[in-house]
Amino acid sequence: MQDDTKEWNPGRADFWVQFYDDEDGHLREKEQQHKKSRELAEGGSLMDHYEWFMEYPLYEKKLLAFLPQVPTARTTEKPMRWLHVGCGNSDFCDQVEGLLSDQLSVSASPPAEVLNVDICENIITHLARRFPWRLYAVGNCCDLHVTARSASLSQERPAGEEPWFVLDNTLHVQMVRQSAVDVVFDKGTADALLSAFAGEFNPNMEAYVGEMLKVLRPGGAMFVISINSEEVVNPYFLSAQDGDKSFQLVFTDVVELGAGGLRHLRVETLGSRYSCYGYTVVLPAD
Questions:
Q1: Pairing assessment for the beta strands 246-256 and 273-282 based on DSSP bridges
Q2: What are phi and psi of 276, to 5 degrees?
Q3: Could you give the CA distance from residue 232 to residue 224 in angstroms, rounded to a whole number?
Q4: What pTM value is reported for the model?
Q5: Domain locations along the chain
Q6: Does a cis peptide bond (omega within 30 degrees of 0) precede residue 218?
Q7: Which backbone phi and psi does 223 adopt, to 5 degrees?
Q8: Which residues form a coiled coil (predicted)?
Q9: Is 62 exposed, middle or buried (0-12, 13-18, 19+ CB in 10 A)?
Q10: Which CATH number applies to 48-151+162-282: 3.40.50.150, 3.40.50.300, 3.30.450.20, 3.40.50.10490?
C-alpha cells in the first residue's frame, strides 16, 4: 500500500490512520454528528464496529453459494484458516463460526481460525483491547512476510503442528506461512488499492494479489466484494502465479442495495451495486 505524500486517497496508509484516529478521525466526527442516534445508543461506538459497503446479512447468501465450490471447505475435521485482509473494524470474523457450523456442517471445534489483518495500527490496537477473543494483526496486505518455513520462529502450538502465522508482542505480522490459508476474505481492500492508480496499471494491486496467492493453499479460495468491474479486477487475479499455483474465477454475483441498505449510520457505502468474485487456487491439470 502506498505511503508517500503525493496524494490523499484510500490507497494510502495514512488515509486510514486518520480515518480511525481516536480523537478527530472520520468515525469520531461521525459519532459527534449523530450522537443522539438510536443506532449509536443501541450498537455502541463506531470505533468498535463499522462496515464498508454493507452488513453481513446482505452478502451472506452470496458467500454461502460460493463456499461449496471451494475444495478446502469440504474438509471438516480441522478448523478452516481464514484471512480477513483490510479488516478495519468489521465484525465479519464473528459471523464465520455460524456460517461454517450451521450452514456448511463443519464439525471441527472451533470451525475456523480467522486472522484479521489491517495496515492501520491504531484501529488494530483498539480492537485487540476491546475484543481480546478475536485474532488481530497489524500487517501490509502487499507484504505479509510469507515464508515456506517457520521453524526459527516460536509460538505456542500443539506438538507437531507448525504455526501458520507469527506475530510480535505489538501484534505486527512477522510471518504468514506459504500455502497455509483456506480462505481469504476481501470487502473493499482491493478497491482501496485500485484507487491509488485509477485507470492505470496498479503495482500495489499486483503485489497484493500475488501475496494472497502465496498464502492460499491449493484448493483454497478468495472471496472479493468490490465496486470494480470484472474487466478491472480479473486481469490481476488471472495473471498471478506462485510456482504452479494460479487463480481461477469460479463465481460471480451482484449485490444491489435498497434504500435501507444505503442509510445505515454504521456503513460506508460507495454506491448501490457491488460485485462478488470467487476465485479458487488451482494447480496445472495432470
A1: antiparallel
A2: -115, 125
A3: 13
A4: 0.91
A5: 48-151+162-282
A6: no
A7: -110, 125
A8: none
A9: buried
A10: 3.40.50.150
Contacts of 94 (CB under 8 A, 6+ apart): 134
Cα–Cα dist 153/180, whole Å: 16
64: left (phi over 0), alpha (psi -120 to 50) or beta: alpha
CA distance 234 to 224: 11
The one-digit pLDDT tens for each residue of the chain (286 residues) are 544 444 557 888 889 999 999 999 999 999 999 888 888 878 889 999 999 999 999 999 999 999 998 887 776 678 899 999 999 999 999 999 888 877 777 777 788 999 999 999 999 999 999 999 999 999 999 999 999 864 444 444 444 568 999 999 999 999 999 999 999 999 999 999 998 876 778 999 999 999 999 999 999 999 999 999 999 999 999 999 999 999 999 999 999 999 877 888 899 998 999 999 999 999 998 4
Q: Report in angstroms the alpha-carbon separations of 145 from 164, 166, 215.
A: 12, 10, 10
Question: How far apart, in Å, are the Cα atoms of 254 and each of 42, 129, 182?
Answer: 30, 35, 23
